[in-house]
Amino acid sequence: MSGASGTPYAAAVLRALLAAGESVDLVVSRASRLTLLDETGISFRDAHWQDDLREWLSRGADGKPDTFTVDVDDVRHWSAGDLAAGPSSGSYPAKGMLIVPASTACVAGVALGLSKDLLQRAASVTLKERRRLVVAVRETPLNGQTLRHLVTLDDAGATVLPASPAFYAGATHIQDLVDFVAGRVLDAAGVGHTLYRRWEGELGGGSRTT
User: Fold this and answer.
1) Domains of the chain by residue range
2) Which of 61, 77, 183, 207 is placed for a possible disulfide with 195 were both Cys, Cβ 3.0 to 4.6 Å?
3) pLDDT greater than 70 at residue 204
4) What pLDDT score does 207 carry?
């Protein structure tokens, strides 16, 4: 998680990864902790990260307590300042990496290979090891510099996935829109889920030639 607005997207992705039986290495940037506090009122603390994570993941997109029940035993938390952490090395086993949400500052750091914190370092390792990297950028509008950084990431093999909800899946609540974006992130990562109704094509409506 980087410092962009959009912590409900990260929560939905985390819940779905755990529901799919995936083990998760979690890195929450310093800027993201401030965003999490602002959007949910939750302070993410290293010493109490499991309790804070449970409280966060139990809430819906509106920040209020919901019916989500999450087991965080398969989550391993790494401090963003720990550049000696497992994910900083290519020999550490990982299927890939999801940056949700991705700020433009994070995008720039990864595109330029700065590795100023564990988040950026792990992303650089993911690219060099040719693993899947999904970057859910959450900003609008985008200036030319950020667009060039995103093209750089695409050229390097990353999947650039703007956090852009769609409405064809019949959304009736904010959580539905959040889950659509989270589902698209998981699609790009090759993780199964049932977060949204998939488009199956229109039937009828006149003859068409393909």
Assistant:
1) 7-189
2) 183
3) no
4) 46
